[in-house]
Design goal:
- The complex is a heterodimer.
- Helices cover about 30% and strands about 25% of the residues of chain A.
- Chain A contains 19 helices and 37 strands.
- By secondary structure, chain A is of the alpha+beta class.
- Chain B has three domains: about 45 residues, Uridine Diphospho-n-acetylenolpyruvylglucosamine Reductase, domain 2; about 110 residues, 2-Layer Sandwich (Uridine Diphospho-n-acetylenolpyruvylglucosamine Reductase, domain 3), CATH 3.30.465.10; about 110 residues, 2-Layer Sandwich (Enolase-like, domain 1).
- Chain B is built from twelve helices and 14 strands.
- In chain B, the strands form four sheets. Chain B has a five-stranded antiparallel beta sheet. Chain B has a four-stranded antiparallel beta sheet with strand order 11-12-13-14.
- The mean pLDDT of chain B is about 95.
- Classes of the chains: A alpha+beta, B alpha+beta.
- The interface between A and B is medium-sized, with 29 and 23 residues.
- The complex binds flavin-adenine dinucleotide.
């Protein structure tokens, strides 16, 4: 007989593929073989298709709508307008920000491509043909395309529907186009600090309007079963449970009769958090026709009507001592929210977590004021791969630090180090009210500057500048640094909710008799690889190999209630719930093991995948054995089965941080900026799957490159949206994407059960300032203080020209 | 993004294609690779009622080279232009330019005929054809005629081709051996049309420039053949001053529109830079 030695402890750990393992993504087999199941793959018998008639104008009164020719197209079933939705009180819908948004334009259109009528037909082609035939008679009105003019005395009134409602969801409105003023911090004290400062810098910094532009656009299939009264809604939802609750509240269909399913989602980046007119119209059309109705937007519709991001016009002022110690930070934002306030933020935070703007620095006093305004642009203001308005905040502070460095003639790295919050100051109370859970900024910056050999880069740049002045080269080298701190994982129910729904999250784990398991979460992956990483958390907690764990999300009939995936909250919140559910299972497993081994629970210890008797590891029961026992033994005092559910309300947010360096070469003759080096050190606490982290960082950095180098949704004077196709809206290809170097430090979150902090959004948050700082730095010696993004060819060339470098 | 409805025809000979075009009349359009036409149809900016597809017309698919005379069938794909070694031997500008069109996927289906017949000033091949002094053969119900590339373009999407005529082939003489050529194109990213682009073909004789031809892409309603700019080069040693003067002359005939690639001033400026760089590169390649 062969005597096999039992697997070693290391072998057992390895087999689990738990925390720290770069196991391959289990999702990829189906995605790479084209067997993913996206919304547009859903085909139901008798399914109808919806398509929108959209406004060609930025601002106009609707005088009449003639549906006749459209209804005559063979295959067209219905054409819905606001008049049809009014009796159901569905012509407006509530937004996540406490405003209302027109589902179909009510008497007026407020932005180009606004939804005016919804055509329902037997196929897509008939619907598209009929859209062309709906005749809408408009009377053009004056347009506001500039947030700075929205509050002028003579600015046209945009929102007639709320013109008498001067008390908004976030306090008084001071003008008919004003939405809110939101303030945090000590205004007077900060102004005093500025007045008393040895050195003061001020800069106006705009983060342009961009769009998350996920590969898959938004869409849904609504199916009302009139016989059992049940509505099923498949859709591109980043928060399926919240959609179910909102759908129930606005349609009055009881919540138990609504099933919301998010199938595979091809990227969200915040674009799929909100509720869109297409969803409501599809539901109504399905209720009216008794048939399933599909609506999927095309790329132009996606870029022009479903949630944009940013559009923050910021002013920063820093007070400092002559030797570079920051003594105060004052900020104001003019926030362009478009025609309706459809921002996706926790309800109490109309400017999200913008007050993380003190960043990684120990700033004793600070003030933030944000004025939200209406303009004739598409609504939105979502967190495009960042926690709520954190990217805007990080961009402002990281640019402002460079502005201060220039003024002081100090090295920007040195200035950052001088002002960092020190390791021993954590948990750190920021001047704007946050409690930073943990951090070790000095170590990260030290590791980063060594990795890129920062002094050598500056020496090379000095040579480059001399060569440029001698006429030996037409390229200028720029070095950008950013040291960001994020705030992610919303969040504590005590201060974070969406429409009254606390932002906890959940996980339910069931162990099968043979020792495999299924886990279901309240979140939903859109490409992040949840099925891979969350199985790893379960594996480490309960000792079942990750490959034996199925992970399910997105079906509200089966998954426990959760608030969904955005704001890097899945790992901090649902990941924590997963660990806690695993621990509940382990606690019961320990009782079962004690019974089986005939010892007291306290005599047992957990070891990787089993409970063993302390001091006698040969006497043990593996989780697999315990699972079987839980189903086939009558254990006194214990219920059969082995499952648990956990709803996790995090005690605090998590605060990932990172040190990024970017090196560019700018051709002053063409404005072409070549990214030579991009180094990203991330500290996201405990690292669950390093390969997935690296993938997330690569993806987020590529979006950062896209934003900083070219993305912009802009409008002309009469309200036409410019460049809203992928011809103009900048999505880099593999050719434009630089090579990235990733690195890390590990500072676990002290309050998260496994110490993880979230990483998906860090590279977008830190990458934009790193790259923008590099472009600004290329011209710093020629006197440039700040130039606005995007740093596309012509703007960079204009900067060179303004500085007299183009000749 | 769904085109209006249309009928689809797939003739297998040029004669049948011409017959269909005449019998179907004004509402019929040729479709070759479809990579300019179909996007326009999806935006409903083109609304043909009939598409006559040339894919099965085998006689339009060959590249032939006799002595130094090159004939390109209209249905030769941009990818085939790139892979033909023989063509590259005698006229490397074609591969260099084709490689700067769109991306591999587009080039596998997009054709040379469609690229030059389209009439979009943003297409790259028209200026290349003007630089190389190519001519286009057009066949229609009234027979065959030949039009010089330099006379073909009249405005954006507006050429001397009559409705019902099919561009069947492109003819050009390979530039003399020892020539140098280059195509410099600035774009925002792969798949984008030019912010500005310049093609240059030149020959040297004893250190001075003997002949030169310069073409410009996406800088006016039509491609531009910069005759005066080229003539400045001839007889010079291609010194810095002369190159600057030629670039200035080329820039002077441009008339770009403002678009997402930048304001007019910038696009004109880049035109000058592209011309300078293309001349320098062509010079370095000439023997
Ligand atoms: C993403 C993308 C990027 C692109 N980038 C570039 C670029 O950088 N540079 C560039 O030059 N092009 C670019 N193109 C266009 C591409 O090269 C097209 O393939 C080309 O312009 C047209 O060739 P086609 O064979 O596809 O023609 P089609 O689209 O089939 O036809 C174009 C037009 O020409 C007419 N036509 C076609 N063939 C004939 C013929 N034999 N006789 C008469 N009329 C004819 C058609 O009726 C139609 O009006 C791009 C296209 C895409 C989709």
């Amino acid at each position: 007989m062969n005597v096999q030695s039992p697997p070693s402890r290391e072998e057992r750990i390895k087999k689990l593929q738990g925390l720290g393992s770069s196991r391959k993504r289990v999702e990829d087999a189906r995605f790479t073989q084209g067997t993913g199941n996206y919304v547009d793959d859903i085909k139901l018998p008798g399914m109808l298709f919806g398509d929108f008639v959209r406004s060609p104008y930025g601002h106009a009164r609707i005088k009449s709508i003639d549906k006749e020719a459209a209804l005559a197209v063979p295959g067209v079933i219905a054409v819905l307008t606001a008049e049809d939705l009014k009796p159901l009180n569905l012509h407006y819908m509530p937004t996540l920000a406490g405003d209302v948004q027109a589902v179909l334009a009510d008497e007026k259109v407020l932005f180009q491509n606004q939804e005016v009528a919804f055509v329902v037909a037997q196929d897509r082609y008939a619907a598209a043909d009929a859209v062309e035939l709906v005749e809408v008679d408009y009377e053009e009105l004056p347009v506001i395309n500039d947030a700075f003019k929205a509050l002028d005395d003579d600015a046209p009134l945009l929102r007639e529907d709320i013109k008498d409602k001067m008390e908004g969801a976030h306090g008084p409105r001071k003008h008919h186009n004003h939405i809110f003023l939101w303030e945090e911090g000590d205004k007077e004290g900060t102004e005093q600090a500025l007045n008393n400062a040895e050195v003061m810098v001020e800069e106006k910094i705009t983060y342009q309007r961009v769009h998350p532009c996920p590969l898959e656009t938004c869409g849904c299939v609504a199916s009302m079963d009139k016989i059992n009264g049940k509505l099923t809604l498949w859709g591109t939802f980043q928060a399926p449970h919240a959609v179910r609750t909102v759908a129930s509240l606005i349609t009055n269909i009881p919540e138990h009769n609504i099933r919301v399913v998010s199938p595979d989602i091809g990227g969200g980046f915040g674009n799929k958090v909100g509720v869109y007119p297409g969803y409501i119209c599809s539901v109504v059309a399905s209720i009216v026709t008794g048939k399933p109705v599909k609506w999927v937007e095309d790329r132009i519709e996606n870029l022009t009507s479903t949630a944009f991001a940013r559009d923050y016009h910021m002013t920063g002022k820093i007070a400092a001592t002559a030797d570079g110690k920051i003594t105060g930070l004052w900020t104001h934002v003019l926030a362009d929210h478009g025609a309706f306030d459809a921002c996706a933020d926790p309800t109490k935070f109309p400017a999200g977590f913008f007050h993380i703007v003190t960043g990684s620095y120990d700033i004793p006093i600070a003030y933030v004021g944000v004025d939200g305004v209406y303009t004739n642009k598409a609504p939105g203001g979502v967190a495009y791969r960042c926690s709520f308005r954190v990217t805007e905040a990080a961009y402002l502070i990281e640019r402002m630090i460079d502005v201060l460095a220039r003024k002081l003639d100090m090295d920007p790295v040195e200035l950052r180090i001088k002002n960092f919050i020190k390791k021993e100051q954590f948990p750190y109370q920021s001047a704007l009210g946050w409690e930073y859970d943990s951090g070790d900024y000095h170590t990260a910056m030290d590791q980063a500057t060594k990795a890129v050999d920062y002094p050598a880069l500056r020496a090379e740049q000095a040579e480059n500048r001399v060569a440029f002045d001698r006429g030996e080269t037409r390229n200028l080298m720029g070095i950008g640094v950013a040291f960001f701190t994020e705030i992610v994982g919303a969040g504590p129910v005590k201060n974070c909710d969406i429409l009254g729904l606390g932002m906890f999250d959940s996980c339910e784990i069931r162990i099968h008799p043979t020792g495999s398991a299924i886990a279901r979460l309240g979140t939903i992956s859109q490409g992040q690889g949840h099925a891979t990483t969350f199985a790893q958390i379960v594996a480490s907690e309960i000792g079942i190999p990750a490959e034996d764990i199925t992970l399910e999300e997105g079906d509200t009939d089966t998954a426990p209630y959760g608030l969904g995936t955005y704001g890097s909250r899945s790992t901090p919140v649902a990941g924590a719930a997963t660990a806690m559910a695993g621990r509940k299972i382990r606690a019961k497993a320990q009782m079962i093991a004690a019974y089986l081994l005939e010892v007291h629970e306290g005599d047992l210890e957990w070891d990787v995948d089993r409970f063993q008797i302390k001091g006698n590891p040969e006497a043990h029961k593996t989780m697999k054995e315990i699972a079987f026992a839980s189903y086939n033994q009558a254990i006194p005092g214990l219920e059969p089965g082995l499952e648990a559910v956990s709803y996790y309300d995090p005690p605090n947010m998590t605060y990932p941080f990172g040190a990024y360096f970017c090196v560019v070469d700018v051709d002053v003759d063409t404005g072409v900026t070549d990214i030579r080096k991009f180094y990203a050190l991330d500290d996201c606490g405990t690292r669950i799957n390093p390969m997935i982290i690296e993938g997330q960082v690569h993806g987020g950095l590529t979006e950062a490159v896209a934003i900083a180098m070219g993305q912009e949704i802009s409008y002309d004077e009469i309200g036409n949206v410019k460049g809203a196709s992928l011809m103009d809206f900048y999505l880099p290809t593999a050719v434009e994407t630089p090579t990235y170097e990733t690195d890390f430090t590990v500072t676990p979150s002290p309050h998260h059960p496994i110490g993880a902090k979230g990483v998906g959004e860090s590279p977008n948050v830190g990458g934009v300032p790193a790259l923008s700082n590099a472009v600004n730095d290329a011209f710093a010696h020629k006197g440039l203080v700040h130039t606005q993004m995007p740093h596309d060819h012509w703007r960079v060339w204009q900067t060179a020209q303004r500085l007299g470098l183009t000749g | 993004m769904i085109p209006g409805s249309f009928d689809y025809h797939r003739p297998s000979s040029i004669g049948d294609a011409i017959g269909l075009m005449s019998s179907l009349g004004d509402d019929a359009m040729i479709v070759a690779g479809g990579h300019s036409l179909i996007p326009m149809m999806k935006l409903r900016m083109a609304l043909p009622e009939h598409l006559v597809d040339l894919q099965d017309v085998q006689s339009l698919k060959s590249i032939s080279i006799e002595n130094s005379q090159i004939t390109l069938g209209a249905m030769v794909t941009q990818a085939e232009l790139i892979t033909s070694e023989e063509l590259h031997e005698i006229c490397p500008l074609l591969r260099e330019a084709a490689l700067q069109i769109a991306d591999p996927q587009v080039r596998y289906v997009g054709t040379i005929g469609g690229n030059v017949a389209n009439g979009d000033p943003a297409n790259d091949m028209p200026a290349i054809m003007q630089t190389l002094n190519a001519s286009f053969t057009l066949v229609g119900p009234n027979g065959e005629r030949s039009v010089a590339a330099r006379d073909f373009y009249q405005g954006a999407y507006y050429t001397t081709r009559e409705d019902g005529e099919i561009l069947s082939s492109i003819h050009l003489d390979a530039p003399t051996s020892g020539h140098g050529s280059a195509y410099e194109k600035q774009k925002r990213k792969i798949g984008d049309y030019a912010t500005a682009a310049a093609a240059v073909v030149l020959t040297l004789s004893g250190g001075t420039c003997a002949t030169a031809s310069i073409g410009l892409t996406n800088l006016s309603e039509t491609p531009l053949w910069a005759e005066e700019a080229a003539s400045i080069l001839v007889g010079s040693s291609l010194d810095r001053e002369t190159i600057k003067a030629a670039a200035a002359a080329a820039k002077a005939i441009t008339n770009p529109a403002e678009d997402g690639r930048g304001p007019i001033e910038f696009r004109k400026h880049v035109a000058g830079i592209m011309v300078e760089r293309a001349i320098a590169k062509a010079h370095s390649r000439a023997r």
